[in-house]
Structures are given as C-alpha cells and as structure tokens.
Amino acid sequence: MKNQTFGLLPRDVATQLRNYGRLMRIDKPIGIWLLLWPTLWALWIAAEGHPDQGLFVIFVLGVFVMRSAGCVLNDYADRRIDPYVERTRSRPIAAGAVAPAEALLLFVALGLIAIGLATMLNRPARLLAIVGAVLTIVYPFIKRFVSIPQFVLGAAFGWAVPMAFAAQTGEVPQLAWLLFGTALLWAVIYDTFYAMVDREDDRKIGVKSTATLFGEVDLFVIAGLQVLMLLALVLVGLRAELGLWYFASIAAAAGLMVYHQWLARDRQPAGCFAAFLNNHVIGLVVFVGIVLHYSFNPA
User: Fold this and answer.
1) Burial of 171 (0-12, 13-18, 19+ CB in 10 A)
2) pLDDT by residue (tens digit) across 50-83?
3) 8 A C-beta contact, residue 114 and residue 133
4) Over the stretch 158-189, which tens digit does the pLDDT of each residue have?
5) Residue 217's domain is classified under what CATH number?
C-alpha cells in the first residue's frame, strides 16, 4: 500500500504543477509576446541597436515572471467572477484545481524572483520597478471601480519601456515616455478587442471595461486609437532618427490594424479574439523594423 501511495505522488505533483502552469498562462504565451515587444523596442532604441546582453536576459526573464505573476493575481482577484464567464470558468482557481491560498503563495514566489531580477539593475531602474510592481498589483482590482481598466493595464504593460531606458542609459528621456505612451495606446487597443469577447457576460455581472464603455462605437474608438498609435510610432521614429526600414514597419502595422478591424467587424467573440491574438504581430513587425534599421545603419 505504501509503495502504491508513493507511486501516485509524482503523478499528483505533476498534475498540480500543470495547474500552476495554467494559472501562470504558460500554455497561452500571447501575453508574454504583448509585454515583450515594447520592452525590446525600448532596449534596442535606448542602446541604439546594441543592448547590453545582461540587461537583455534580465528583461526577458522579467517579462515572463511579471506576466505570470499578473495572471496569478488576476485569477485570484476574479475567483468569484470567472465561474460565471464562459471563457474563464475552466481556469484553475475557478474550477477548483488550485486553492486561493496556493495562488497567493505562487504570486509571492514569483514576486520574490522579480525582486531578485530588479536588484541586478541600476538605481533609477530599481525605483521604476517599484512603480511597475504597484501597477501589476492594482490592475486586477481596478476594473471593479473604473470603466477604463485597459488604461491601467496599458501602463503596467508599457512600464518596462522607461525601465529599459533607465537600465541602459541611466536616465529616462522624453523619447522613453513617448514610446511608453505608444505602448499604452497599443494595450488599450488589443485589450479592448479582448474585452469585447466577454462583453455580454461582463454586463451581466457588472465588470467594467472599455468594451462596455465604448458600446456601439467600439470599433470607431479603436480605429481612432490605432491612428494615434501610428502617429506616436512616427514621432518615435523621427525623434530617434530611425530610417526607411522602421517606417516601412509602421506601414505594415497600419495594414495589420485594418485587418484587425475586419476581423472584428461583426463584433462576434471569435473575430474579436482573433483580432486580439493577431495584435502581437504588430509588435513583432515594429521590432523587426527597429532591428533592421540598426543593422543596416550602424552608428
């Protein structure tokens, strides 16, 4: 009997580790990409195409850890909401696979790893990391009180931009804040598409979002935000003196934005979700434009 009990233990542990992985959204890396691309934009521009290798590793690991921590805390905060939303009722806490106390312990563990990574940065970046941590903690709860939680998410997802500039150069110039604003606008765009998937469920249970706030003019408002983002990207390119490759990437991003509007044209959940998922290609395209500029126009 004892051998059978111990024989079952590895399987139980493996199952629970998979549940923790699902809680961290390791099986759904879209959030990692959406957080990673603005971080890499900032690292490359701040370093004029030659970012410090150590900083690259720290920020990539930081993206993974902070995104995972944010997902864990979000599911803990939504543990009484997720069971009533079609898309989220199978999440580990909502389904009873992970206890709330376990989720909090996992969040603390990830937070300690993030603190360890932050200690490897210079003082300006460490100070900014404190603000980033506050934004990560506040966001999961803010949607109960304000109608524009996507702007808070945008600030949280974009905060790696000024951190990257501070870590690479020791300061946060106007260019960094302009790029941060660009990342914020982008997050509002793609997370509004995401919120449109759950809009009907959110209305029933009283969850606030830009999707419910914008209502029937949602796609029109998103289009306006897309134009603002493109203009911001152009200003970034002019201020950073980026060249043809970069501006070609902006043109490609504009085409992708039109495609996303088409995907969500009927406001059906599947189309809106596809538009959300495809947004990470915009981040990739812009990053490729930045890399190509510095590759063919070395300082």
Assistant:
1) exposed
2) 999 999 999 999 999 999 999 999 999 988 888 8
3) yes
4) 999 999 999 999 999 999 999 999 999 999 99
5) 1.10.357.140
Supply the pTM of this predicted model: 0.91
Q: Which domain holds residue 33?
A: 20-296
Can you tell me the mean pLDDT for 240-261? 97
Cα–Cα distance measured from residue 120 to residue 24, given in angstroms and rounded to the nearest whole number: 24
Over the stretch 5-48, which tens digit does the pLDDT of each residue have?
A: 444 456 688 888 999 999 999 999 999 999 999 999 999 999 99
Say how many domains are in the chain. Answer: 1
Q: Which two tokens stand for residue 179?
A: 């790029």
Task: Give me the count of residues in the chain.
Answer: 299
For residue 221, being part of any structural domain is answered with yes
15 within domain boundaries: no
CA atoms within 13 A of residue 260's CA, in its CB half-sphere = 30
Q: How far apart are CA 115 and CA 118, in angstroms?
A: 5
Q: Is 249 exposed, middle or buried (0-12, 13-18, 19+ CB in 10 A)?
A: buried
CA distance 33 to 284: 8
What is the DSSP-derived secondary structure letter of residue 130?
Answer: H
Q: Which two tokens stand for residue 174?
A: 């106007």
Q: What is the CA radius of gyration of the chain?
A: 20
Asked whether residue 45 is domain-assigned, the answer is: yes
Helices (H), 198-268: 199-205, 210-214, 218-239, 244-263
Residue 36 included in any domain: yes
